[in-house]
Amino acid sequence: MRIAFWKKTVDDIYCDNPPQQPVALELWKAVKRHNLTKRWLMKIIDEREKNLDDKAYRNIQELENYAENTQSSLLYLTLEILGVKDLHADHAASHIGKAQGIVTCLRATPYHGSRRRVFLPMDICMLHGVSQEDFLRKNQDKNVRDVIYDIASQAHLHLKHARSFHKSVPMKAFPAFLQTVALENYLKRIQQVDFDIFHPSLQQKDTLLPLSLYIQSWRKRY
């Protein structure tokens, strides 16, 4: 019902007839002010609808597709709000969104495990002979850590690709991409604990993260 509500709401917003609901009204204002593309909003809703059954991703490509249609779509909208229309920025946003989706899946693994759910890509788990039960039992064997290493490496690769466009991306797009600081921070922390996804330190806030964000913002880097 929520999905149906938002589909109709987005349609109504683009017909200048938003429902009298606080979030919908603010979204309508943003659409009017920044001429936001309807396609990106619908992609987010449609992709979430496809994943309502909350099954594990069959492979890393499925996870990347989900991230592209949700996280990357949000970044495309953010670029529109910033007034950025640039192919290099779009390419960077695509890779950053995929990295964000992969890292979010990794970070949520302990929480999902506590609810007896595992969403990590099945092809990588099978490659290392790891079952969902291994994650539910918080198994810390090497093959379990190898699964996490492979998935984290894919996120790192997307960050690397995104940064390869650094010199070509307009400066005013950089605020949209500062989330790379938090992504890289998590990937470094998980490396430091030898890819033990259940290590307690990964569930703690990094008090230096705001400073890192400020420094990267000041340096005009992402």
Automatic annotation (TrEMBL):
Domain of life: Eukaryota
Family: Belongs to the NDUFAF6 family.
UniProt entry keywords in alphabetical sequence: Membrane, Mitochondrion, Mitochondrion inner membrane, Transit peptide
InterPro entries with a match to the protein in the record: Isoprenoid_synthase_dom_sf, Squ/phyt_synthse
Name the record gives this protein: NADH dehydrogenase (Ubiquinone) complex I, assembly factor 6 isoform X4
Main location: mitochondrion
Biological source species: Vulpes vulpes (Red fox)
Compartment(s) where it occurs, according to its Swiss-Prot or TrEMBL record: Mitochondrion inner membrane
Keyword Thylakoid carried by entry: no
Gene3D superfamilies tied to this protein: Farnesyl Diphosphate Synthase
